[in-house]
Structures are given as C-alpha cells and as structure tokens.
Amino acid sequence: YAFFRGEDGRPAGFLPLPNPRFCHPELSPSGEKLACFCGGDERRLSFYLAGADGRSFVRKASFCAESGVFWIDPHRFVFTLVDESKGLRSGNPERRHCSVALYDTIEEELTVLRQATATRDFACLGFDSASRKLYGVERSVKEEKDWSRESKITEQEIEIPIPAAG
C-alpha cells in the first residue's frame, strides 16, 4: 500500500499497489487525480480518480509506459507510451517502440503526440509549467536492424507541441 497524508500530517488515504517500493505517484494540481508509474517487468502507468469518500482512489485507466509522468494541467498528463503489441526492437531488451502520449482524464482519451516508427522512437523528458513547454527526446536509426547497435542510434532533444484541451 501507498499511504497519503493531508496537509496536517494525518493519514488522508491509501492506494493498494503491486510493489509500492518501485512506484512513483504524481498527484494532479487539484489533488483529486493520481497518475502512478510502477516499475518492474510490466512498467505500468495507472490513472486513479479520488473516490466519493475522498479517502481512496479508483483506477480508471492503465498503460504500458516508461519513465515518469508529467501533469500539464489539472486534467491532462503526458508520458512515454510503450507499444506492447510490437515487442522489442531487433531483439534488444533495452529498446521498445516508444511514443509520447497525452491522456485527457475528462474525455478519457489517449492522444499520441509523437508516434514511434520503424526507425524513430520518442520519450518524454519533462514539462516546464512556466513556459508551458513539453520536452522530449527523439531516438533514430537509418535502418530498422540498427536498433541492436548503440553506436548506430542518434538522439536529439525536441520540443513537443501540446494541443489545446477539449
């Protein structure tokens, strides 16, 4: 379990998690929503909504993901989405088909902002709330078979436009 405390330090709620030692919860700016990234073999990112009692969370969505999650406003977050259906790139256990995605908790809709291709991969690096800019990294190779050789992979930081809400 992961336990949450209120501003007064008293217990405010809990969330049953498969392995809380490897989980990174991120509360929305309003504190009513929670995106929780749990590492390990499955690398799951789950979205929870505060329960009617105000002391618990109910899971509403789950995705295969890498790294962290970043709230861009009270109702939307971005993360690195892993396409589970495509498996590993060239058998390399460190390389999966990754895209940058946005989840809208009001619309309950997933939008891919940067889509992985056979020769390109994308990952979310962070969100600057002051400038409202989303930063990521694009990894690419000339040919699909090159994913198995680190020396053939190039990386560059990119800025990713964020669509308007709704």
Total beta strand runs: 14
β-strand percent reads over 45%
Residue-averaged pLDDT, rounded?
Answer: 81
Provide a count of the helices.
Answer: 0
Question: How large is the radius of gyration?
Answer: 17 Å
CATH topology group: Lipocalin
In helices, the fraction of residues equals: under 10%
User: Briefly, what CATH class?
Assistant: Mainly Beta
Structural domain tally:
1
The rough form would be described as elongated
Give the termini separation: 34 Å
Level-2 CATH architecture = Beta Barrel
Poorly predicted segments: none
Strand order of the largest sheet: 3-4-5-6-7-10-11
> Helices and strands: which structural class?
mainly beta
Largest sheet: 7 strands, antiparallel
Q: Please write the string of helix (H) and strand (E) elements.
A: EEEEEEEEEEEEEE
Notable characteristics:
single chain, 166 residues, mainly beta, Lipocalin, three-stranded antiparallel beta sheet, 14 strands, 0% helix, 57% strand, elongated
Which helices and strands occur, and which strands form pairs?
Blueprint: E1 2-5, E2 11-15, E3 23-27, E4 33-38, E5 44-50, E6 57-73, E7 76-82, E8 88-89, E9 92-96, E10 98-104, E11 109-114, E12 120-128, E13 133-140, E14 154-160
